[in-house]
Design a protein that fits this description.
3 domains, about 450 residues, Chitinase A, domain 3, four-stranded antiparallel sheet, Trigger factor, domain 2, alpha+beta, about 50% helix, single chain, Alpha-Beta Plaits, six-stranded antiparallel sheet
Length: about 450
């Protein structure tokens, strides 16, 4: 097989030509036909005993086409890999050079593929490039909210309460009404559960707040949870598809009120959050909470920095030419749902995102920025620790538990790829921060979020 590449005059695309002769595929076609013969069930012959001539006549063309296409595909990507060609998308059959492939009358075939080359960059960064770096300050309000969250998470429950409050768990007997009386053969739900804080309608919510144990409340679930079919179905223990037919009032006879009490600010709470003996006083606890919040905010500061430096890098890269025709053909071929009108509308943003992605790849490669297994495992542990803290309120986690959680998390291919991409961004951000001059600005968490929101608009 002979393979050659001809660069187009635009220098951003080329045509890859493959010349396939019979000797390249004959042995594999023969082997595939023999294998097909052994498995074929053809009327009038025992399995595997049909004449080879009949097999070739019946299936030779399809087997030939399959093997030639497989051979071409393998060698196209082998050539690209071995010649270290940095291409965009995938090779596409050339519209003008590629003639019809006649498997009936020819034994030698020529294939022509269009390929789009990734552009090259030469970006110089130095200390004359000044960029803001936003450090999020931990104000008293943010600190108190986090401490309150820990006290909520490690609080206790008391089921002897006599008067219902907004955050209490209320359990009782629910009965469907009709004309103010229990409906004959109506719905009855024993040990129904609700929390007033999750009732959407304020009038219905007020009926439960301040209600006594053993009192009977008349309310309307459809009004209380308007538009929330899943909540209504769960509360009444019915199928979600039937919720639309429920319009009647119900009574709720309160049998039990479980009150949630926040944890006290004491050693027990300190040990549960940070581990036994790690914190001894309330002041140390507050400082430790503040430190943990700061650690969680650091990646967000780097994220904003990367958003800001993106603009600088795109500006320094200047105008970059792409093989638009090839890229558009590839984008259309790779998405069945995308229309040509949608592509034309989305294409400028696609190109800008692609340009930035290629710039990042170029900086990572030229500056030998590498992500090792140790980096992935370390970041995986931090992500796992953050998730456990977010979902379970636990900051002190046994090492073996954290390791196993991270290990299981990274078994998911998508999660692993996300962690790898984030690790690359972390290392690139560290490298970039060292190359430019940082104008450090302290901002509150709310102001920082406004900056992020402005970026999205």
């Amino acid at each position: 097989m002979n393979i050659s590449l001809k660069n187009n005059d635009d220098a951003i695309s080329g045509v890859l030509k493959l010349e396939v002769v019979k000797a390249d595929y004959a042995d594999q076609v023969e082997k595939s036909l023999r294998s097909f013969r052994q498995k074929a069930n053809i009327s009038g012959f025992r399995k595997g005993m049909a004449p080879m001539g009949m097999i070739k006549k019946m299936y030779g063309k399809s087997v030939l086409g399959e093997e030639v296409n497989k051979l071409v595909s393998e060698n196209v990507f082998k050539y690209i890999r071995e010649n270290d060609l940095n291409i965009l998308g995938e090779p596409l059959l050339n519209k003008t050079e590629q003639g019809e492939i006649d498997f009936d009358n020819r034994e030698d075939f020529d294939f022509y593929f269009d390929i789009a080359f990734a552009p090259t960059f030469n970006i110089d960064l130095n200390k004359r490039d000044k960029l803001p770096y936003y450090q999020i300050t931990i104000d008293d309000d943010t600190l108190e909210k986090q401490i309150d969250s820990y006290r909520e998470s490690y609080g206790t429950y008391d089921d002897t309460a006599e008067i219902a409050e907004e955050k209490d768990l209320i359990k009782g007997l629910v009965t469907e009404l009709e004309n103010g009386l229990p409906k004959e053969n109506g719905m009855v739900v024993e040990e129904a559960i609700l929390m007033p804080m999750y009732i959407k309608d304020e009038e219905e919510k007020k009926k439960f707040i301040g209600a006594d144990k053993n009192s009977v409340i008349t309310f309307n679930p459809s009004k209380a949870y308007e538009g929330a079919e899943a909540e209504i179905a769960s509360f009444l223990k019915v199928d979600k598809s039937t919720v639309g037919d429920i319009a009647n009032d119900f009574t709720f006879e309160i049998n039990e009120i479980t009150h949630h009490q926040k944890a006290e600010m004491n050693q027990e709470l300190f040990d549960k959050v940070f581990g036994e003996g790690k914190v001894a006083t309330e002041e140390e606890f507050r400082n430790k909470v503040k430190e943990s919040i700061g650690e969680r905010f650091a990646p967000q500061s780097d994220y904003k920095f990367l958003l800001d430096i993106r603009k600088l890098l795109l500006k320094k890269a200047g105008d970059v030419n792409f093989a638009d025709d090839i890229l558009k053909r590839w984008l259309m071929a790779s998405s069945e749902k995308r229309t040509e009108e949608q592509l034309e509308e989305e294409y400028p943003q696609i190109i800008e995102d692609l340009k930035y992605h290629l710039i990042k790849e170029d900086l990572v490669k030229k500056n030998n920025i590498k992500v090792e297994d140790e980096d992935i495992q370390s970041l995986g542990r931090r992500v796992a620790q953050s998730q456990i803290a977010q979902y379970y309120g636990m900051l002190s986690i046994p090492e073996d538990v954290l390791d196993n959680y991270a290990k299981e998390m990274l078994k998911n291919e998508q999660t692993l790829q996300n962690v790898v991409n984030r690790a690359i961004d972390d290392k690139l951000a560290a490298w970039l921060k060292d190359k430019v001059k940082l104008d450090v600005k302290e901002v509150s968490f709310d102001d920082f979020n406004k900056l992020i929101d402005d970026e999205k608009q």
